[in-house]
Amino acid sequence: MFSRALRPARxxxxxxxxxxPLSKRAVTTxxxxxxxxxxxxxxxxxxxxxxxxxxxxxxxxxLDPPPYTLNTTKKELKRMYYDMxxxxxxxxYYRREK
Length: 98
Description:
This protein is of the alpha+beta class and 98 residues long. Helices cover 30% and strands 8% of the residues. The chain has 2 helices and 2 strands. The chain has helices at 2-6, 74-97; strands spanning 49-52, 69-72. The two termini are 46 Å apart.
């Protein structure tokens, strides 16, 4: 009888109607701060050009950081992008399978 007195008169919803406010989450990538001058980028895919990385790209402890300049080609960058997109696709596909 005591347990009946503690029960609410109506059924509770499955999910609480009050939700915690969504906090803003900022994602910062150091790749966004990497840059090159548009005039230095060649039209050909196989010609190398220089990309300067941000000073905050690498955090080291008692080590010298790697160079902050990168010589690459459009073809290499396109291949890296293709590989990243492919890996992301397979990752999402196999997560969905489980």
